[in-house]
Amino acid sequence: MNVSDLTTSEYDTYYGNYISKVSNEMTLAEGFKQGEQRVLNFFKSIPNDKLEYRYAPDKWSIKDVFQHVIDTEQIFMYRCFRIARHDKNPLAGFEQDDYIAPSKANDKSLDHLIEEYQAVRQNFKVLLKSLKDEDLKCMGTASGSPLSSRAAAFIILGHEIHHMAVIKERYL
To answer: Given Cys at both, which of 22, 92, 148, 163 links 10, Cβ 3.0 to 4.6 Å?
Structure first.
């Protein structure tokens, strides 16, 4: 299953930016494998003295951004799971800024953040392996908009690419 299989009716237009960052030939399985390596290599390459850098006082640090990537993956994995299990209950949205302060990302070591990321990624990969194509095509509602199970997964792949580009552009 490739990102090119998605239709725009499977996700809110807000997520189009993330989905557009994923190669049309990329399958979910390969995307999650390659994405994990890309994320790990990227964050490991950042000098320690930059990890708590903010390009403006009211902006997140690099550690905060990494924590946001992890938190968002957990939320979208949950969405993917619920929708793939044919759960028709609307899924609530989440306010990303509300998650950063309680995460205390800047108190965590990079090794801890990496461990957390790898655990979440491994869980998502195992979930995706367990789902059939028909499960991934299931539709649900999240944040008041239609969302397919597979779109939730592809959004994560583009989301991490987006945030690495932001870090390169504004932080490094």
So the answer is: 148
